[in-house]
Amino acid sequence: MVKNIMDSNSFQKILVIIVTRIGDTLSTTPAIESISGSYKDTEITVLAHPKRYTVLQHLPFVHDVGFISKNTAIWKG
């Protein structure tokens, strides 16, 4: 029998990293909400540009918001 590694009980925390501008950041919120709905007992943390904090902090399905910028990112694309 093959085990499904995406089993909703296998995750405790999920990190979402958003490195886009505000419009694209807003467009990702339904996807984050969907992830939250699929993994109900999971804490979701979002890393984004500091200017996005005020938008992301009020999302009821996001547990914590952290900051990332070009200067603090290890990998730059």
From TrEMBL:
Gene3D superfamilies: Glycogen Phosphorylase B. This is Uncharacterized protein. It comes from marine metagenome. The lineage of its organism: unclassified sequences, metagenomes, ecological metagenomes.
